[in-house]
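Example record

One chain of 302 residues, shown exactly as stored in the release files.
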Amino acid sequence: MNTTKNTDTKLMKYLRWVFIIAWVMQVAVWMLYQNGGAAVGQLLMAVMMYVPLVATLISGVKLKGMGWKPKFKGNIGTLLFSWFGPFLLTLIGAAIYFLIFPKHLDLTGQYIMAASGEAGEAAMKALEAQGLTYQTYMLITSASSALYAPLLNMFVAVGEEAGWRGYMSPVLKEKFGRTKGIIIGGIIWGMWHWPLIGFIGYEYGPSYFGFPVTGMLVFCIFTITLGILCDAVYEKSGCIWFPAIFHGSINAAATIPIALCVPDTGNYRLLGPAPNGVLAGLPIIIIAILIFKSRYFSTRTE
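Predicted structure tokens for this chain:
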């Protein structure tokens, strides 16, 4: 049997299905958004995170060797980094952004009211009725994002991580080498989201220069660097739940800076305050580069 040819065939089958299923779902999300079904569309986007896992099963990939059994011995440091690292890096990145653009910081809830309309206004009135300020609410939300949201999000994020890290990344690194394999994997991960970026302004809104192409390219920078960190966590732990926790943690943390920012920042959304912006993402980019160049990671992934 030609092992290389068999691997290439399985990889192409996986990529075909992972894009077809997800992009069809993203078109459906766009249609829902166009017809007042944003809430259902957001639910569909959450379900979409399981598509990479489904694509592995359709392609005949065996899940057994991905490390489904939790491995805590010798991995406590990796677990703590996966759980709290994204929150801390996001916090630092947001601080950098708001220090440079202090007028974008808002502690009154403008973003939520603009995004949710009457529902947002009702939520703010409900907070006031309970004697809570928006600042207090955000402190509680931030604590939740750091402490238990990564664990809850892990069960959704594992749907992506089983496909990206459990299957695709090792195959790409074997086929193209460590550096090219991880970069290609990050680009694929970013491209997977492109219809949402183009259709509904996913992550960056629709008001920046060069929409949607610029946003698509910036998002790929984010997925490449985030892929490095998820890959390092997976290589170190040998357990698929660790990058799933990391992925779940970044998803939870990323909502905090946006909720503290004035709405409609236009071109500035490409810079931050969420960690997928170029400026606010600097802490993640720097850590990713340092880990990528580290001797340990290089040795494990060659």
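Notes: The chain has a mean pLDDT of 92.
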